[in-house]
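hi! just following up on the protien thing from before. the input was this:
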Amino acid sequence: MKLAIIPARGGSKRIPRKNIKTFCGKPMIAWSIEAALKSGCFDQVIVSTDDAEIAEVARRYGAAVPFMRPAELSDDHTGTIPVIRHAIEWVNTHDQMVEHACCLYATAPFVSGDDIRRGLEIITNDDVDYAFSVTTYAFPIQRAIRITAEGRVEMFNPEHFNTRSQDLEEAWHDAGQFYWGRAEAWLQGRVIFSPASVPVPLPRHRVQDIDTPEDWVRAEWLFKAMQS
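and the predicted 3d structure came back as:
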């Protein structure tokens, strides 16, 4: 079985009710559910939540909510891997055995079915644990600066002060959209950022962290521009 798991707990603090807050005309989570369904990759799309209202919205947009996430996996400190492991174990026990599972974040409105399919192709054809979305940093990380306790400036890597940007190695970061993984990798808690993982590159304009109200407004502007 190929399973999509969308983690969506109810306790968002910086943007209250973030997972079901209206984003460009739909609850935020609806965009992830629809992308998963349209991708054609999955035997089942489920939402893992501890919140009855999120569960109702998820069902309305076509996802299944076969269980309510236990409280011990719904606090601020629980990572993604334990949540996905719990969902896989539940499905393995109550339905079919999961072969591949894709964690798809509920706050990823820019995710596309094509990218999800690319991830599936990689993980089914290569001997890897995970395939997940990445994108490049907009500025060379080797030339990053910090503000000191005295209010002054210093470089993280001062040896690169005179290095041309084009001569520095390009750096990438997690795009925070989806993570395909073999079921055994999730169940054994294997680390995602490792040589056993393969990147699925995305263009920067389709990668948006949405952690603050300002992020939300900027993401809606960009999303509307892309749709038009």
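Residues 2-135+173-227 form a domain with the Spore Coat Polysaccharide Biosynthesis Protein SpsA; Chain A fold (CATH 3.90.550.10).
The first helix runs from residue 28 to 39.
cheers
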